Automatic annotation (TrEMBL):
NCBIfam families: MIP. It holds the Pfam family MIP. It is found in: Vacuole membrane. Keywords: Membrane, Repeat, Stress response, Transmembrane, Transmembrane helix, Transport. InterPro entries: Aquaporin_transptr (IPR034294), MIP (IPR000425), MIP_CS (IPR022357). It is a multi-pass membrane protein. The keyword Zinc-finger does not apply. GO terms for cellular component: vacuolar membrane. It comes from Zingiber officinale. GO terms for molecular function: water channel activity. This is Uncharacterized protein. Belongs to the MIP/aquaporin (TC 1.A.8) family. TIP (TC 1.A.8.10) subfamily. It comes from the Eukaryota. CDD domains: MIP.
Length: 254
């Protein structure tokens, strides 16, 4: 494998056709994910006055899992299928993406989430996006810890199934594995803080629905968890390239 390195990147790389296609792919994939995910929450609110039921939680978890699996799949071959600023940060701290590329990914992901939330507002006749909120009796710092742990699991799964160069055939089920861990985490943390694990997923509905209470939780927790997962997997679980040793010249080298 190539040696690990942290690259700033060049500004001209941002306008390279491959980079532009990757950024567009992140924008579209994130918009698809947020539209389906937030839409599932709005649909429950349309069907039932109180959607905070066990059945509603399962429906939302399944919708998020399926939507993320599809979003990762459609972007995987073009951009890597991050669909999440936290995943991009995990790849950045592991040296798998340059800072310039990460900045453009973040902009595309946030814009995609905002466009999706705006489309939902228009398509539902003005239903205000719900977004995320910390439940009564749960402190913001407890929510930060919860988001950190859940996002660690999400990004760790991304590394194990989509980034690890020794993943082999496991890469074919990466989108499903990533979607499944998201859905499982929603079942575990949804009643406490909504289980975002994705700053873009939280930002789009918060901006369009103008719900900012405790919004910082959904940035700090996921970013801490993703950075830790990237460092742990990249530097503790992926073997480093062995140092090159001097090899004697062969006749072919002359």
């Amino acid at each position: 494998m190539p040696p690990r390195r942290f690259a700033l990147g060049r500004t001209e790389d941002a306008v390279h056709p491959d980079a532009m296609r990757a950024v567009l792919s992140e924008f579209i994939a994130t918009a698809l994910f947020v539209f389906a995910a937030e839409g599932s929450v709005l649909s429950l609110g349309k069907l039932y006055k109180d959607a905070s039921t066990p059945g509603g939680l399962v429906v939302v978890a399944i919708a998020h899992a399926l939507a993320l699996a599809v979003a990762v799949s459609v972007a995987y071959n073009v951009s890597g299928g991050h669909v999440n600023p936290a995943v991009t940060l995990g790849a950045l701290v592991g040296g798998r993406i340059s800072l310039i590329r990460a900045l453009f990914y973040w902009a595309a992901q946030l814009l995609g989430a905002v466009v999706a939330a705006l489309l939902l507002l228009l398509a539902t006749g003005g239903m205000r996006p719900v977004g995320f909120a910390v439940a009564s009796g749960v402190s913001d710092w407890h929510a930060v810890l919860l988001e950190m742990v859940m996002t660690f699991g999400l990004v760790y799964t991304v590394y194990a199934t989509a980034i690890d160069p020794k993943r082999g055939n496991l890469g074919t089920i990466a989108p499903l594995a990533i979607g499944f861990i998201l859905g499982a985490n929603i079942l575990a943390g949804g009643p406490f803080d909504g289980a975002a694990m994705n700053p873009a997923r939280a930002f789009g509905p918060a901006l369009i629905g103008w719900r900012w209470k405790s919004h910082w939780v959904y940035w700090v927790g996921p970013f801490l968890g993703s950075a830790l997962a990237g460092l742990v997997y990249e530097f503790l679980l992926i073997p480093a390239e062995p140092p090159r040793t001097h090899q004697p010249l062969t006749p072919e080298d002359y």
